[in-house]
Amino acid sequence: MKVQNITDIEGFFKVVDQCKGKVELVTGEGDRLNLKSKLSQYVSMANIFSNGEIPELEILAYEKEDTDRLIGFMMNGSN
Questions:
Q1: Of 23, 35, 41, 68, which is the most exposed, with the fewest CB atoms less than 10 Å away?
Q2: d(Cα 64, Cα 6) in Å, to the nearest integer?
C-alpha cells in the first residue's frame, strides 16, 4: 500500500510496533526494510524524512489485521 503525508512519525512507528506480522518499507531501489526493527526505523527516518514528514512510502503488511491497523492510523491519526 502507498502511504502519504505521515506527520506523526512517532505514532506511525507505535502502530507498526503493534502489528503482529511483518511490515516492510519498499525503498525506491526496491529494497525491503523490516519496519519492526528499531535499526531499520532509525535508518528509514534518517534517509527518508524531510521537514518532519514522510511524503510517500510503499508499505507491505503481510497480515490483514495489520493492514487494517495501518489504514486506520492513516485515516484517523490513531491506532
A1: 68
A2: 21
